[in-house]
Amino acid sequence: MMNEDLNTLFCELLSENDVLADVVTDDLIQFGTYVGGRLEILKECYLALCQHRESYTYQAFLGAPIELKFDYIKQSVTISRENQFEVRLTLDYFRILLGLIDLVYSEVLPLGSVVELDTRRFPEQLKEMFSHTPGAKVIITGRKLPVADNIGHYVVDYQAQLWPLGSFPPVRPMTISNMMIKNIIARGYQDSYETSFSKHLKQSQIQEKRLSTAFMSQKAATLFLEQNKGGH
């Protein structure tokens, strides 16, 4: 899709979302479409939220910076860019907003892609797994896997194996999200059939309005981790 088509789709999903529909403003749309075109900002916003930072600032090459200020007592975040927009959301609403941006603008990588993971949010046990390797690299072996209905309306972006080990007992496959991917080292094989199938996976996720497990509610995340020991 062209960026204009993605922006239109994003606006449609915002207006149809049960939670965000009543708080949609031009400022909210402007922030969402801007970040959608620069997914590195999305990942940093997500990391700032997960790490309970007080603030995050993105300094664009041109123009005023985008500033996020978190208030964990009031459970809210204020997003602003001087003379352009200002948005205040609850943290729960902000998490859903980030999930919708990811849903619309993130691509589906082909099977066999090797990616490097961002270890900044890893628990110590997972960091130890990669402590003796040159980078946290995994190979993608599964894509867009819906979670159990009792957990919620979410999807696992990818299932992956350690690279270059692959399937190597007793190490279990990992579940990873777009938010965990730092770099794409090598893309898997693609032909017209794979491209068509990836498009189908993406369209199905959008039609079913399934956010990535990265953006689950706390209750859903607890259930998910109980049933699937590993990263998400």
TrEMBL record:
This is Uncharacterized protein conserved in bacteria. It comes from the Bacteria. InterPro entries: DUF4176. It comes from Streptococcus gallolyticus. Pfam families: DUF4176.
